[in-house]
Amino acid sequence: MTNEMEIVERMGLENDTLRKRVAELEQTVRQRDRVLQTILDHIPALIFVMDLEDTYSHTNHSCATFMGRKDVSEIVGHNASEFFPPEVFAAWRENNRMVAAKGEAIVAEESGPTEDGIQVYRSIKFPIRDSEGIIRWIGGIATNVTAERRAEERLGESQARAQAMLDASTDLLLLVDLEGVVVMANQAAAGRLGCSPAEAVGRRDVFPLDEPDRRAFLVEEVRRTGTPARFDAARDERWFEVTAYPVRSGDGLPARLAVFGRDVTDQRRAAQEQRRLQEQVIEAQRLAIQEIGTPLVPLTDEAVAIPLIGAIDEVRAAHFVETMLRGVDARGAQIVVVDVTGVSNVDTHVAEVLVRAARAAKLLGAEVIMTGIRPAVAQALVDLGADLGGVVTLASLQDGIAYAVRGKGRASSPRRGVRA
Question: Which Pfam families does this UniProt record tie to the protein (predicted)?
Answer without folding.
Answer: PAS_4 (PF08448), STAS (PF01740)
